[in-house]
Amino acid sequence: MRLAWSRSAILGVVPLFALSSLVAASDAAAGERRKEPRLTVGLGVGAAVELKGEVDPSFVPVPSFEYENRRFSMRSSGPGVEFDVVPWKAVQAGPLVRYRFGRDGDNDAVSRLPDVDDSVEVGLHAGVGVPVRVFGVDDKAVLTGKIEVLQDVAGGHGGLLADLSLGVLRKFGKRWRASGAASVGVASGAYMQAFYEVSAAGSAASGLPAFDTDRGFKDVGLRAGVSYRLTQNWNIGGGVAYVRLVGDAAKSPVTKETGDRDKVFFGVRVKYRLF
Length: 275
Prior knowledge:
This protein is 17% helix and 47% strand. By secondary structure, the protein is of the alpha+beta class. It has a single domain, classed as Lipocalin, CATH 2.40.128. Strands 1-2-3-4-5-6-7-8-9-10-11-12 form a twelve-stranded antiparallel β-barrel.
């Protein structure tokens, strides 16, 4: 199962470091909008651990980048790129492109089900950072919210995905920043059928019980992270995220066979500002 877990670790960095894309929004909300172009590159290491069964995580390298100027910004978002084209303060919104791995059978029974090709998902994202002081709270914390909507356009799972996260981000002094968030994911019927449904033919081939799926909630999660600015150009951070499949995704024989309803993702990342 190591290949599948390597892929899980890469995708797990998406929720793990998702709040980093709201740093610019929270800074803008605090009156710290960038005036000069900035390019930052990073390299992280991520891994996934299954709470039941798999205890030997597969570590994978995860490169990243962020570019911003007065008019727009763009940054890596897991295996993909998101753009911010909205000039309003404390708000980020724009197109998003992401690559998602398919399923080629990493388990004896699941390998007898139809493969799911890799997908290219295209959609939109929107995020906001609101200082808690606007609610009369005397604190430096910033409330964050983000939504992503993605549609597969490459014939992989062929479905639509939506993810919503709500959290808080706070600076401690000039060097430390901590964040936390809760998230929920929703998937269309096509996505659920591709990854979690077992047809009558699939049941006969794999030995798994037949299972019908429908659109609905796919997962819920919690994540937390911390970063420290070593110098003007160097920054180091790390985080942990817990994701639990729910609904049909959790009930599916595919999930029960592979044993991956609950996953914990963790990782560290170093970033360097080129200019």
